[in-house]
Amino acid sequence: MVQRFDVGARMSEMAVHNGIVWLAGQVAADGSEDVIGQTRQVLAAVDALLARAGTDKSKIVMCQIFLADLADFAAMNSVWDAWVAPGQTPPRATVQAQLAKPEWKIEVVVTAAL
């Protein structure tokens, strides 16, 4: 059985199936902040969703990061490095992408184990 969280007409925020948690792309609620502030917001949202599913960041099996501008890579990494579980850093890809709203600087997609 697939369990879906915060189901909308277009998408769900999260799905859980067979011991795996998939998060929708997480973006900042306050797009007026710089990439450091937006990254903090996004990672807090990831933490909250994983907790709702009964897991945490130490169980992330893959992370995809989309940056509107690769010039923000070092600043984003400064927040990421302080957040990620020591010794449990997941596989990760970071690419530049045009995000759905111009004020968004980062979007993060996470897959985790329960």
For this entry, give a set of tags:
alpha+beta; 60s Ribosomal Protein L30, Chain: A; 2 helices; globular; 6 strands; six-stranded mixed sheet; 114 residues
Describe what this molecule looks like in 3D.
This protein has a six-stranded mixed beta sheet with strand order 1-2-3-6-4-5, with helices on one face. Helix 1 packs parallel to helix 2 (73-83). It contains two helices and six strands, in the order E-E-E-H-E-H-E-E. The chain starts with a strand and ends with a strand. The chain is α+β, with helices and mostly antiparallel strands and 114 residues long. The radius of gyration is 14 Å and the shape is globular. It has helices at residues 35-53, 73-83, and strands spanning 3-5, 14-17, 20-23, 60-67, 92-96, 106-113. The protein has one domain (3-113): 60s Ribosomal Protein L30, Chain: A. Strand 4, helix 2 and strand 5 form a beta-alpha-beta unit. The mean pLDDT is 98. It is 26% helix and 28% strand.
Strand order of the largest sheet: 1-2-3-6-4-5
Biggest sheet character: 6 strands, mixed
The CATH class turns out to be: Alpha Beta
Number of strands: 6
Radius of gyration based on Cα positions: 14 Å
Overall tally of structural domains: 1
- What is the CATH H-level superfamily? RutC-like
Shape category: globular
The end-to-end span amounts to 15 Å
Mean pLDDT: 98
Which secondary structure elements does this structure contain, and how are they paired or packed?
Layout lengths: L2 E3 L8 E4 L2 E4 L11 H19 L6 E8 L5 H11 L8 E5 L9 E8 L1
Parallel strand pairs: 4-5
Antiparallel strand pairs: 1-2, 2-3, 3-6, 4-6
Helix pairs in contact: 1-2
